Amino acid sequence: MARRQIATVTLELEGQQMVFLNGGPTYQLNPAFSFFVSCDSQQEIDAYWDKLLEGGKPMACGWLTDRFGLCWQIVPRNIGELISHPKAMQAMMGMIKMDVAALEAAARES
User: Per mean pLDDT, which range of 22-31, 48-57, 79-88 is the poorest?
Assistant: First the structure.
């Protein structure tokens, strides 16, 4: 029996409808397209990170690829403010999963 492939998937996130198209082997997912998740606490970062990483792989600077190959950035809500401090930016560049306490400490040192 032939295996059927799904052509499109439609879902709604926070009132925004999205349609995903299966591009097949010609159009592979890559980090040029990713979902950005702003979190209010380290616990929230950890929860998203752990769930999305199941079957996926970590990248760097809060990025990971889920089991489907979709890229996600899991970051503190104030990431822009934090990395405006040079030492915090340097700290982030050495991280895989975001560590809010370490980023805040590095920002205070700048």
Answer: 22-31
In a domain, 21, yes or no: no
Q: What is the mean pLDDT of the chain?
A: 91
Q: Please indicate, yes or no, if residue 71 is contained in any of the structural domains.
A: yes
Average pLDDT on 69-74 reads 94
Rounded to two decimals, the pTM is: 0.79
SS3 percent helix, strand, coil of the chain, rounded to 5, is: 35, 25, 40
| Residue 4 clears pLDDT 80, i.e. is over it | no
Residue 2 within any structural domain of the chain: no
Q: Is residue 15 situated within a structural domain?
A: no
CA 60 vs CA 4, 30, 78, 96, 98: distances in Å: 35, 14, 18, 4, 9
